[in-house]
Amino acid sequence: MKFNKITTLGAIAALLFLASQASFAQLSHATALLKGDAAGASGTASDVSVMIYKGSEMVNKTKVTPEGKFTVVLQPGNQYRLTFSGPKYYYHEEQLSVPASDKYQEVPLHVMLKELEIGKPYQFSDLVFEPKSSDISATVIPDMENIAAAMKRNQSLTISATVYPDEMPSGKKAAVQNSLADSRKSALMSFFLSKNIDASHVLVEINTSVPATGVFERTIIPDPPATKGKKKKKAPAAATTGKKVMIPQYAVITMQMAQ
User: Fold this and answer.
1) d(Cα 195, Cα 224) in Å, to the nearest integer?
2) Global pTM value
3) pLDDT tens-digit series, residues 106-116
């Protein structure tokens, strides 16, 4: 009995040794080890999921460690797509080509992730609304798409937005300015609803106290004075060129994390 027990233990040990040798040989000769690190603007990234795809097939997945590191075993001679997602970051993709080789290789990858602007206004690169317009500017549509995509991937994200008219409603222009603010509110709501964002996650309010500080330069051409019963005269050259002014951001969007 004792002999059989020792023999059995020896056989198990031998099998384990052979398995470990095979695994080592596979890692050493026919695979690539991706050694990556991820960071955001404030430092190393954490709580980020990494998915690895070859074509449309997901072949592996892992998570970034609290130290901002991740490792994945890949097969050489393939093109991969890596996706990164986490509650504090925008969704991110990386393309990775692993060279063909019959030897073990290490592939480094450094990834910079953009952090969500939680609790502070999103910094748009241009005006969300041009003066006199309630159409969302084409130049900021990519930013709007990023916000909507982040909300779809993270159900805890909500946004609160404030829109303004061009100027404080008063006198004869009050109706026009109030209507402009209403249209801007509708434009923001419609955009996010069209992206299948739950209406309960989007709050848009109107503030008629227009920000005093301008952030984007524009050339404004004044409207010609109204004339009654007379043919309009051609405006002088100085009037058609207009003047340069600083325009405030007429829409402010802030992302929040639901409690």
Assistant:
1) 40
2) 0.71
3) 999 999 999 99
